Amino acid sequence: MRSKKILQYVVAVVIGIVLFFYCAISRDLFEQSDRTVIMGILSDAFVVPGVFLAGCGGLSAVASQGTFLFFRYAGNVLLSQIRHPKEPAPSYYDYKVEREAHRKPWLRGWLFTGLIFLALGILCLIVYLV
Length: 130
Description:
Elements: H1 2-26, H2 35-64, H3 69-83, H4 92-101, H5 108-129
Helix pairs in contact: 1-2, 1-5, 2-5
């Protein structure tokens, strides 16, 4: 169980670093010599993975609480009525109880890693503005 949590953080950090380097290289970070330009590029390069990871982690937290469950139920009922029109669809209550029994934890590592990237981006922005 502990290794799954560590793996979740490692995957989030790797994705963040890949996005960071993609943004930094696409803006020619390593060819710049002016400090303000470098800090501006670093700020942008940290904010992009921060927003992506924190957004995915936040959506995961909201979805794990069952917020989007009704939309999934509606889609499943619609598709089941198209495929098997004579079979009755389960009630929303039965569907909700079944889904809550198999609820997966949210991506806590993605949210916190994204917040760290955002904090680094804000720190670079402060240095850029000073």
